[in-house]
Amino acid sequence: MSSVDIIALDCITLVEIFGGLLINGFITTIKILDWWECQKMKPLDKLFLGLGLSRFLTMCLYVFNIINRFFSLNVYQIKVLDWTLNTICLFLDFSSLWFSMWLSVLYYVKVAIFKSNILIRIKLRLSELVPYMILSSIFISLVSGFLFAYNFSSDLDIMIPYSNMDHNQSEEPYLEFAIPSYIFGHFIPFIIVSISTFFLLQTILVHMRHISSNASSITTPRMNAHHTAIH
């Protein structure tokens, strides 16, 4: 990459990053202010707060990486800082995916109408299960990021162009850590999000068909239940 291409790429990336900072910072601030005023937070809002905060901090880390390269701070040359920043980078990335996964699952559970007693119990105990979801997400993300970052000898600054990275380093010793990290950090959340989103959309379409076919009786208790489920 030429210097002009790198500068152009950095400018485009900065616009996207600051857009992400504004959006996720706004979500995080609103959720914190709501919690401060009410002294209580809904289960889904807890996950939204975790998602917004993790993505906001990820954007901050991207900005830090650009500053590090622009001013040639060489922070990643210090072993302890290199390992710490790599762990934080992976932890934030993995945790945001896990929070997104739980939100998709919970929205489906909240909207769908179940006949199974087990699923009905889960639906009624969402407020009790959310703290365990948050703790499990943090634990899995932290362990996966720690194991990979601790055994990876190069920095994980994704802002560095691939052409500038060291290609002489063998990747085989790190596959045993990269594969589990990918599975628990990316693959599992992605698969569950895809499945839950598919069923969520299917459930919403069913509700919409019920409303459309019973437009004349939209105020009946049954139709009000469908309308409430969608919202």
Record the SSE blueprint.
Layout: H1 3-38, H2 43-70, H3 79-111, H4 117-124, H5 126-150, H6 172-213, H7 221-230
Short précis:
It is a multi-pass membrane protein. The protein has 231 residues and is mainly α.
Account of the protein in words:
The chain is an all-alpha fold and 231 residues long. It has one domain (3-230): Rhopdopsin 7-helix transmembrane proteins. Helix content is 79%, strand content 0%. The protein has helices at residues 3-38, 43-70, 79-111, 117-124, 126-150, 172-213, 221-230. Residues 161-169 have low confidence and may be disordered. This is Taste receptor type 2 member 40. It is a multi-pass membrane protein. It is found in: Membrane. InterPro entries: TAS2R (IPR007960).
